Amino acid sequence: MRPQIVLFGDSITAQSFRSGGWGAALADTYTRKADVVVRGYGGYNTRWALFLLNHLFPMGSATPPVATTIFFGANDAALLGRTGERQHVPIEEYRENLRRIVRHLKNCTPTMLIVLITPPPIDELGRLEFARSLYGDKATELPERTNEMAAVYAKQCVELAEELGLPSINLWSKMQKTEGWQKFLSDGLHLTAEGNAIVYEEVVKVFSEAGLSAPNMPYDFPHHSEIDGKNPEKAFQNL
Amino acid sequence: MRPQIVLFGDSITAQSFRSGGWGAALADTYTRKADVVVRGYGGYNTRWALFLLNHLFPMGSATPPVATTIFFGANDAALLGRTGERQHVPIEEYRENLRRIVRHLKNCTPTMLIVLITPPPIDELGRLEFARSLYGDKATELPERTNEMAAVYAKQCVELAEELGLPSINLWSKMQKTEGWQKFLSDGLHLTAEGNAIVYEEVVKVFSEAGLSAPNMPYDFPHHSEIDGKNPEKAFQNL
């Protein structure tokens, strides 16, 4: 049984196996070494994610994941009084929900590598353009998310990771270090192939620093070059 | 626990989670409905694949896959007396090895949907160009695989599927129905994004015809639009 890496999050995780997606790229990197399992729930915030915990990560599992990314906040940060209001979670509750998710995973297995990922920045103009492309003149003029509010949630996510001694990826901050960072977002919120590449690189970096480096992990079975064409059974005798 | 779809094969399966890959596209299509698990072994032929069967598909598993694609033959068809000779498997043995793989999977669970995929066509000029790009003047002038020989293996694969009453995908034949089919192959053998798209479409079609259609499968948890922002617990009470 090879180890499992679980990607737990909202639509940005759910879409991570699309062409150029960060989840698929991870699965490719860890092929024959670990299984990358997507547990992405479009539209979900941390409050709703709590209902899934016992189902996705049952206590007493014989094979809990070796690593899990927790990537929520984009929906929690939807503004009150705007079209995404239903998804809004107050900032203090967001932090506490993340804490409860981490605690549950640590209870599953204390050795699990847990990585917190902040929401990405919001390109408000990109969001409005996207709304107009969907609804034309009926589109709202007020963005349902702001970059300023995403920053508040990102900050709490990073601070909680520090408090708990966990690695984190500050995507909000990382992306905006690049001039023209809006190119990382396809609709002002979700990721383009270039945005996916950043998440992929950051996750691989954090995993490697934590000892989960694909090049250092063994293949599940012999590499084909180690198989003697005339005596193949020899390569497999110690399985 | 959601159902598992296993992709069992050689490098064409192993690489199926690269950007534009057919495996990643399947994982995206079945997100929240089934897990797509890659079991691709670069360089392997059916003879070597047999050694993995009991490990990858243990008898008596409580959660065997609901579906498995078996996608071998490109290495079995490597020619004797050429650079890939070590991988060669005689045509009669190839067919019998496939039969043993199918029998093992059916013994795991008789209800498993098993789909046989033939090797793709070989673009011999593309193979030679690829060899020259690697080895320059030292590259062999004789291709280690021919399109004619790939046809022989593809035919046996399809005939075995018919004999066993299993669905199959004749990739060798399907690809060559398109003028300029060489564009489907990146090095005369492995798949480009366009080649991956064909495999993806064919697998989705066969899965759907067999009743494993993603649009008809239930989500693992409530869609976010079904969650009442004020009473979220209601949507989750029947889990």
Q: Can you lay out the helices and strands and say which pair or pack?
A:
Two copies of one chain form a homodimer.
Chain A: E1 4-9, H1 11-14, H2 22-29, E2 35-40, H3 46-49, H4 53-56, E3 67-71, H5 91-108, E4 113-117, H6 124-135, H7 147-164, E5 168-169, H8 171-176, H9 193-209, H10 232-236
Parallel strand pairs in A: 1-2, 1-3, 3-4, 4-5
Keywords (chains A, B): Hydrolase
Pfam families (chains A, B): Lipase_GDSL
Organism (chains A, B): Olea europaea subsp. europaea
Overview of the structural elements:
The structure is a homodimer of 239-residue chains. Chain A has 239 residues and is of the alpha/beta class. Chain A has one domain (4-236): Rossmann fold (3-Layer(aba) Sandwich), CATH 3.40.50.1110. Chain A has ten helices and five strands, in the order E-H-H-E-H-H-E-H-E-H-H-E-H-H-H. In chain A, helix 2 packs across helix 9. The N and C termini of chain A lie close together (12 Å).
Write a brief caption for the model:
The first copy, chain A, is an alpha/beta fold and 239 residues long. Chain A is 40% helix and 10% strand.
* Relevant CATH superfamily of chain A: SGNH hydrolase
> How many strands, which pairing sense, and closed or not: the largest β-sheet of chain A?
5 strands, parallel
State the separation between the terminal residues of chain A, measured CA to CA: 12 Å
Under the CATH scheme, the architecture of chain A is 3-Layer(aba) Sandwich
- Which strands sit side by side, in order, in the main sheet of chain A? 2-1-3-4-5
With helices defined by DSSP (H or I, 4 residues minimum), what is the helix count of chain A? 10
**In sequence order, what are the helices and strands of chain A, one letter per element?**
EHHEHHEHEHHEHHH
Mean pLDDT figure of chain A: 96
